[in-house]
Amino acid sequence: IRRLNTNVLHKAICGFFTNNSTTRDFLLGFLEEPMEMADGDVQFRPRTGKAASAPLLPEVEAYLQLLLVVHLTNNKRYTEAQKVSDDLLQKIGSKNRRALDLVAAKCYYYHARVYEFLNQFDTIRSFLHTRLRTATLRHDADGQAVLLNLLLRNYLHFNLYDQAEKLVSKSVFPELANNNEWARYLYYTGRIKAIQLEYSEARRTLTNALRKAPQHTAVGFKQTVHKLLIVVELLLGEIPDRLQFRQPSLKRSLMPYFLLTQAVRTGNLAKFNQVLEQFGEKFQTDGTYTLIIRLRHNVIKTGVRMISLSYSRISLADIAQKLQLDSPEDAEFIVAKAIRDGVIEASINHEKGFVQSKETMDIYGTREPQLAFHQRISFCLDIHNMSVKAMRFPPKAYNKDLESAEERREREQQDLEFAKEMAEDDDDSFP
Fold this sequence. Notes:
Number of helices: 21
GO biological process, one term: ubiquitin-dependent protein catabolic process
Structural class: mainly alpha
Radius of gyration: 32 Å
Order of helices and strands: HHHHHHHHHHHHHHHHHEHHEEHH
Distance between the termini: 90 Å
GO molecular function, one term: enzyme regulator activity
Region (Disordered): 399-431
Helix content: 55-70%
Protein name: 26S proteasome non-ATPase regulatory subunit 3
CATH class of the domain at 6-237: Mainly Alpha
Number of strands: 3
Largest sheet: 3 strands, antiparallel
Keywords: Isopeptide bond, Phosphoprotein, Proteasome, Ubl conjugation
Shape: flat
CATH topology of the domain at 6-237: Serine Threonine Protein Phosphatase 5, Tetratricopeptide repeat
């Protein structure tokens, strides 16, 4: 793909489409005239003799036409790519060949990307549903995985989270899908769960998406997942690890989220509003702005907790001033809710207008250490279970050293005869 250019495509189309001049002329119409061959250009032998008169295999023809779609898309010629892609999808729609499944899955992906670039993503939703139904009936795991992810991307692109959640609940993602498709599916599922306030489940799926993602590539995907994961962890009341903000591939893109984390950790509402105002457009582009707005309550809770730890007794007016609230009445409501939610241990004196903090109890006498250990143990067990499920063995390679049923019967018979001989020897040894 990296060496794909007009010269290579022109030679490939002319060299392979020797039996179908109509398709050859149609595809060549989207290419400029080739330039003179350079020394570094790819050399290959076109089809000659009997092979030239034989029709191309469907998967070979689809792959060559897919290369043209990729070339036009990379050069931002989306309207022309749309015409070639429509023709390609019409050809492979009636084919039911297992060898074509993987190529067809790539065709679906680039077909959807072209329509997304043309701002016509919603027009192919019914087409994707139809192809998903066909792929499911044909047990096409590659096609199922790609089409499910494309439909989820389509719904989330237009903020149709209810429809996306129904699709996830009514469909089964194929276990045989490759890790890249699994990572995409887990990321989309995590976004849905986060919007629906299921933050614990969202964190689990997003963490699994990072595990499934390639280690040394897909930097953009990992940046996107980390952004959403950081916001979800903040909504859970946890502070993300500082090390992930220092990774070279993530440091620059996560800088706004690092400042956001600092504001939430310190409970500084003024700094939180400043970060939101400065990077609001970026958060909207990342699709995390709606979730970040919910963090305001977490910032206020953190601020109340910090005040409770710093002062044994403080007036509601001072709390309102520190949290930049409109009135002491607002501070009273917020403190009362924090006490009810168990954020702080304190009591409110309504007559005199102050908050009295209770003595801090020993944290090791509570369930917090147990819950922390439970979370870490569950994390380790999940990694172990996923590693076991991801293991692959060649067919029948595990039982080549095992004995057959006939060999087992012979061994058991020999053991019985040996036991009888031992018993007879023992009887003969006594007078």
